[in-house]
Specification:
The structure is a homodimer. Chain A is an alpha/beta fold. Chain A has helices spanning about 45-60, 75-90, 105-115, 130-140, 155-170, 190-205, 230-235, 260-275, 280-320, 350-355, 385-405, 410-420, and strands at about 30, 100, 120-125, 145, 150, 155, 175-180, 210, 240-245, 255-260, 325, 335-340, 355-360, 360, 375-380. In chain A, helix 2 (about 75-90) crosses helix 9 (about 280-320). The longest helix of chain A is centred in the C-terminal third of the chain and has 41 residues, at about 280-320.
Chain lengths: ~425, ~425
């Protein structure tokens, strides 16, 4: 009788805040350069099977209890692993009881916002930043001030000026949000001296720091080839979050938060009222696998990612020539690019999708979208090297067809195609 | 240096809406008669290991993609299983594309509330109801009207009067929330004729129905020894949710929603902005296990639960005599009791916990808490039969010590203890 076709009887009863409907899922693009996807070949399937079996044999019966009876902070073995990992590689002194497991770092962001923010508050973000922060903050009606970046992260002179300016207006920001280790989207690592300067400024102006280290384990070369986390340098000032999405698999929804108990206990109260715990089978499996294989896993992953980055940088140079200015990342899964000012990447979105290419337009990844309409983010985590080469070439073709840029350059394949 | 002891530097920057801090987790009570815990012995550990292995071998590489590339509605095989299950046992015609997988039914509740509710709205709940609904609605500033229940669920005469009364006040409730099949906490099943009456009233007054069937698979005897779901009878009027917490394991965070696309597409838009998908390993494993073992699993579980219910009913009769009036449930994991009016169960909470007994006080499970201070809910899902007998006896001792009720009755063990 196809009852569903008649439609919901009461659309007029929706809340005034309801968003537009989601479209039906159309699948990922062929050349999928968006989002935090990872390398399919590096999901350790057999090792995860073994880890799940070991963990289920030992603790499976406890699945009958909410949170396995471990309480709202999460599965004890995963919290122990996080504390160990943060101590070993990020300089953080912590025990399992200091750690909260979250359903991805996205939930951590929401929880931090719920503890601190009300509509009309002001926060400081990095000028180029994670789209998720921006979307969440805009829905909350929070004012966002962008702090300028260079190749070492937030510029401290600029941040000091912003804080002084806000103070003159009588405004204390609710937090400074930073991704100091593999910044999103520039891929920079903030040096130690600058971390100390940042903490000093935060102390001077009385502003908490929200530190997101979801990419920190994916530095080129050795794990955590980076200064200690900001949290390690001053735990009273900093709320620290991280994720297993990037180091293992984003379809597993696991992240973590570490913060002083006075803060974390508020987060736990809000989380418990909402979700009745984080998925236990994923916690068990990841705890078991990473307790044994973390270092070797992220080292292999980082090597593979660096190889893909090199492929993407070469492809961008070959296809765009000097028209594209990349920021060279020190780790992670993305390349942040600038095209000439006259290119508005928003106008390329649909033509690129038609050619099978999905990319992140700069205006969605920057505090001042209009000023950054010629920037874009290309993720290389999930595409194969062949797909990277083909996809960047396809994107360059679309860009040239739509904007005339890149002009035909020294690149032989392009010149030939342009002349045919 | 014990930096954490110094405390978070900025507690004065918390939002005014921040809740009180969560306490440190103290563990579950020895006689744990609260919450939707399940039977530890019935977690099918080896079958889950096999299911996880099969699913990971087939689809594990897709964990590298957000939502495994299946889009925001969830893992396709789990949605297919839900559609099949709802068709086979709940009379619902649906395909996988009509189903949204959620992180437990709690997320489903939050999402429905976000689509429909604003502060100051009115909703109708069953007078005895799930604590989670009440807590969430109170946080949203929504007015709650309780509809009287009898052994067949909501009384239609009373509901008609409430709707007429609200209409006279110019109020249309945003929804009528009901658990028609194994009502929480009374365990009733609404007969078919009353389901049709409910839908007719909802149509007459233009009120959506929010149907929660999280216990519907756990009827005594055969699965779904109950009339079709309300959604099956009129999909345009009803938003339907369910859960795997009760049929499999609450530490796995998996539930589902089915609703007309006009509604569901709004839910998906909100969910996607918040969580980046539901945990995939749990979806994969449950889809694989339940696609093969659902009927036998819930039949064994229901038999075990019925046996425990009988043990609890006997224990309550033995220890409380006529002082306790139980509602005899037709399925599920809890027993709803009334003690004499002079007993305020809130005053028993702490003494009972000291004796190792945790129970759900009626005031937290009723729209009008003060009027229901002598009611309580005892869950029997996780306790063994021995624990049920010991725990109910311990609870009766506490109750007698605190209130003089139950008086020493024909029960020999109690009489002997009372006389010693």
């Amino acid at each position: 009788m196809n009852v569903n076709d008649a439609g919901f009887a009461y659309p007029h009863r929706f809340s005034r805040q309801v968003p537009p409907p989601a479209p039906r899922w159309a699948g990922n693009a062929r050349y999928n350069f968006i989002g935090g996807h990872n390398d399919r070949a590096l999901v350790p399937t057999e090792a995860l099977i073994a880890a799940a079996a070991t963990a289920l044999r030992r603790d499976g019966a406890d699945l009958a209890l909410y949170s396995m009876g471990h309480g709202p902070q999460g599965y004890a073995r995963l919290r122990e692993f996080v504390a160990h990992k943060l101590g070993r590689w990020r300089g953080i002194e912590a025990v399992a009881d200091d750690v909260l497991i979250t359903a991805g770092s996205g939930q951590g962001i929401d929880l931090i916002n719920q503890v601190l923010l009300e509509g009309g508050d002001t926060v400081i973000l990095e000028e180029f930043t994670y789209q998720g922060y921006l979307n969440k903050l805009r829905r909350l009606g929070v004012d966002i001030v962008g702090a300028p970046l260079d190749e070492d992260g937030i510029r401290m002179d600029a941040l000091a000026a912003i804080l002084a300016d806000l103070k003159r207006q009588g405004t204390t920001p609710k937090y400074i949000c930073t991704v100091p280790t593999i910044q999103n989207p520039t891929g920079s690592i903030m040096p130690l001296s600058r971390r100390h300067e940042l903490l000093a400024l935060a102390r001077e102006y009385g502003v908490p720091i929200f530190e997101d280290e979801c990419y920190a384990d994916l530095t080129w070369g050795a794990i955590a080839d980076a200064p200690p986390a900001l949290y390690a340098l001053d735990p009273r000032q900093v709320i620290h979050i991280g994720s297993f999405s990037k180091t293992l698999a984003p379809a597993l929804r696991l992240g973590y938060m570490i913060a002083d108990w006075e803060f974390l206990s508020r987060v736990i109260a809000i989380k418990s009222a909402g979700d009745s715990g984080t998925g236990a089978l994923e916690q068990m499996t990841v705890a078991e696998y990473f307790s044994q294989h973390f270092a070797e896993h992220v080292e292999e992953l980082s090597r593979t990612l660096k190889d893909k980055l090199d492929t993407m940088v070469e492809a961008v140079a070959r296809e765009f020539g000097t028209a594209a200015e990349p920021w060279l990342p020190k780790g992670g899964i993305f390349l942040w690019l600038k095209l000439p000012d006259q290119v508005d990447v928003r106008k390329l979105l649909q033509p690129a999708l038609k050619a099978g290419v999905a990319f992140n337009p700069g205006p969605e990844w920057t505090v001042d979208g209009e000023a950054n309409k010629s920037r874009l983010r290309l993720c290389f985590g999930s595409a194969t090297k062949e797909e990277i080469r083909e996809g960047v070439a396809a994107f360059a073709r679309v860009c040239r067809e739509e904007t005339g840029i890149p002009q035909i350059s020294g690149n032989i394949r392009h010149a030939a195609r342009g002349a045919s």
